[in-house]
Amino acid sequence: QNTPSINSLTPTEKKVLSLIGDYLTSKDIAAKLFISIRTVEHHRSSIATKLDLKGSHALLKFALDHKDQLN
C-alpha cells in the first residue's frame, strides 16, 4: 500500500500543515513563521504534492484528521 506519509514532510512543512489545521490563512502563517506568503504557498503546494492531496480543502481536512501527529 502506498499511503502518503507525514514522515515525508520536512519539519517546516509539518509546522505549516499544523498551522493550517489551526485554521490560519497563508498570510497568518507567513507572519507567524516570519516567512513570505509566497514561501507559505510553496510549502502548501509541496505538502499537497507529497501527500497526493487535490482540491482547496484537502490540506485542511488532512491537517485536521492528523492533528495529533503534527505536534
Annotation keywords:
mainly alpha; 71 residues
Summarize the structure.
The chain has 71 residues and is mostly helical. It has helices spanning 11-20, 26-33, 37-50, 58-65, 67-70.
Tell me what the structure shows.
By secondary structure, the chain is mostly helical. 62% of the residues lie in helices and 0% in strands. The longest helix is centred in the middle third of the chain and has 14 residues, at 37-50.
Element order: H for helix, E for strand: HHHHH
Overall structural class, as computed from helix and strand content, comes to: mainly alpha
pLDDT < 50 runs, ≥5 residues:
none
Question: How widely separated are the two ends?
Answer: 25 Å
Task: Determine Rg (CA atoms, Å).
Answer: 11 Å
Instruction: Kindly report the average pLDDT value.
Output: 93
β-sheet strand percentage: under 5%
The amount of helix comes to 55-70%
Apparent shape: globular
Q: How many strands, which pairing sense, and closed or not: the largest β-sheet? A: none
How many individual β-strands?
0
- Total of helices: 5
Summarize the topology:
Blueprint: H1 11-20, H2 26-33, H3 37-50, H4 58-65, H5 67-70
